[in-house]
From TrEMBL:
CDD domains reported in the protein's UniProt record: Ig
GO molecular function: axon guidance receptor activity; protein serine/threonine kinase activity
Species the sequence originates in: Mytilus edulis (Blue mussel)
Protein's name in the database: TTN
Protein origin, superkingdom: Eukaryota
Example of a GO cellular component annotation carried by this entry: neuronal cell body
Membrane-crossing residue ranges in chain numbering: 491-513
InterPro entries: Cell_Adh-Cytoskel_Orgn, Ig-like_dom, Ig-like_dom_sf, Ig-like_fold, Ig_sub
Length: 531
């Protein structure tokens, strides 16, 4: 029997089950000996045979010398998938050589575990991991872990690298005085790696000005993905201002652009440098401190400003500790998302203000904004708008608690939309989602929409019922979130405390009455006339 190993050769698992041979001729001298020959070794390892010609390039073994443990079947070069921010992508997990069962998908970056994927993101029939809306947080390596019923090869891992393309992301910046020079630095990452850097003072481009030096270097940058600290390949751009002299309100800008979009990082150089991290991250129910530092004698902090899309939400008082103005946000929730501007007075009259902003991103379970139903001829359309950070999985629709089968009867669409949410009593417009289920000739019963992200899920119910020969639709939100639970517990505790207080007061009154009753009786008896 002879075999040629090339890129077109696929050895199926039943190819050698009933073939009897003693000698195998190998025409190629250097064999890949990868998982394509796994089934051959699996079914023949206990049946002696010899080979003529050909050895495995990675371990110099002949095919007859191989044993199943020589095959780790982990992709030596993981496949690469890419998607653009806000687009969908599927990561497949295919293995055709052994019967396998999926145990889990995990997400990591640079060897650091970020999260174990929720099984609801996975198609159980194909082991495919589905992302409805790609985000920068989703970049990294995804490993599909499979288990087998073969004792010599109990598990198989298949890896996929996911690259998410989008606008450049500024991670941090700082200033440094070096002799008579001032260096402005911006740390960022950009996928794709092709980008253009421009430094400006006001409207003037400084890239060719001899008074300035501009450098761009590779560096390892730190970032957070789903609130986990990881590192990745990034960049730093430095603008050196030679013979720098401080002047009030000097404004320098670093403009970074790629094929998707551009971002502008601005430096306002006052009498001193204000230090504040460019980005901050928090999960719901956790707390965070924003620390803003100014090394300037006589400077005093004023209130922080919380805003979103340029609209002021609230004014917040920080703690003044030495040269720092520290703002604590206890128990983050979605209402805390936005820009926080740290401000300092730099003169006695308070007419000169230095300020710098950081962007706080809060991740948590999704929540519904609104729902509505429309009837158009024979079609009924159930719609929900919702907000989710991070991006959600595809909404799931059910009829009488069974997943709907999309086709002529049921049609589903999900897309972006602008939604209005309340942030600390201020209504603001943000990017959200709308999901529609169109039902042709809708039957009576319960229709349910389930929204899921990596932090939790919410459900909304639509009920079609018949009352007195009248067609009616009612809706209700059926969800239990940590916030709701905490609020309920707070109410219960408050009610319990009130009831307990009333009970204690009643008991005290009863005891008091009982104590004074004998004395009153004795006094009354002593005044009674005797006969």
């Amino acid at each position: 029997m002879a075999i040629n190993e090339n890129n077109d050769t696929v050895i199926e698992k039943n190819a050698f089950m009933n073939v009897h041979f003693n000698l195998l001729y190998i025409n190629d001298q250097n064999l890949m000996c990868d998982c394509d020959v796994m089934w051959f070794v699996y079914v023949r390892h206990d049946k002696p045979f010899r080979t003529q010609g050909g050895k495995c390039s990675k371990n110099n073994k002949t095919l007859s010398e191989l044993v199943p443990r020589d095959f780790d079947c982990i992709d030596n070069v993981a496949s690469i998938r890419s998607c653009n921010v806000s687009q969908s992508v599927d990561l497949s997990c295919e293995y055709n050589y052994l019967t396998t069962n999926l145990t889990r998908w995990i997400h990591s970056r640079s060897g650091i575990l970020i999260r174990e994927m929720n099984i609801d993101f996975v198609d159980k029939d194909t082991n495919t991991l589905h992302f409805s809306f790609c985000d920068h947080d989703d970049s990294g390596e995804y490993t599909c872990m499979l288990e087998t019923d073969y004792s010599l090869l109990p598990s198989i891992n298949i890896s996929v690298h996911l690259i998410v393309n989008g606008l450049p992301v500024v991670l941090n910046r700082h200033t440094e005085e070096k002799g008579d020079d001032l260096i402005l630095s911006v740390m960022f990452y950009s996928i794709p790696y092709d980008f253009i850097i421009e430094w400006l003072q006001g409207p003037d481009n400084l890239n060719e000005d001899p008074q300035y030096s501009i450098l761009v270097n590779n560096m390892t940058v730190k970032l957070k993905q789903y609130n986990v600290d990881v590192t990745t390949d990034g960049f730093i751009s430095n603008l050196t201002i030679h013979n720098f002299r401080r002047r009030p309100s000097d404004v320098y800008s670093c403009r970074i652009s790629n094929v998707y979009e551009e971002v502008v990082e601005q430096f306002i150089l006052g009498p001193a440098t204000l230090e504040l991290e460019r980005r901050a991250y928090c999960d719901t129910s956790n707390s965070i401190e924003l620390n803003c530092t100014l090394q300037l004698v006589g400077a005093t902090p004023v209130s922080w400003i919380h805003s979103i899309a340029g609209e002021t939400i609230r004014s917040l008082q920080g703690r003044h500790v030495n040269t720092s103005n520290i703002l604590t946000i206890p128990f983050c929730n979605s209402q805390d998302t936005g820009d926080y501007t740290c401000r300092w007075k730099t003169d006695i009259l308070g007419q000169t203000i230095m300020e710098k902003s950081t962007t706080l991103s809060v991740s948590g379970p999704p929540f519904f904004i609104s729902q509505f139903t429309t009837v158009d001829g024979g079609d009924t359309v159930f719609s929900v708008t919702f907000f989710s950070k991070p991006y959600p999985n595809d909404p799931r629709w059910y009829f009488n608690n069974e997943p709907v089968a999309l086709g002529a009867k049921f049609q589903q669409t999900t897309s972006y939309t602008i939604v209005q949410i309340r942030q600390h009593r201020v209504l603001v417009n943000v990017e959200g989602f709308i999901s529609n289920l169109t039902v042709h000739k809708a039957a009576y019963g319960l229709y349910k929409c389930v929204i899921l992200n990596s932090f939790g899920e919410v459900k909304h119910l639509f009920v079609i019922k018949q009352e007195h020969n009248t067609f009616s639709i009612s809706t209700t939100e059926a969800t239990t979130s940590s916030e709701t639970t905490e609020n309920s517990v707070t109410v219960i505790i408050a009610i319990s405390s009130s009831v307990l207080g009333v009970v204690i007061v009643v008991i005290c009154i009863i005891i008091f009455i009982r104590r004074i009753s004998p004395k009153t009786s004795d006094k009354y008896n002593s005044t009674m006339p005797t006969r």
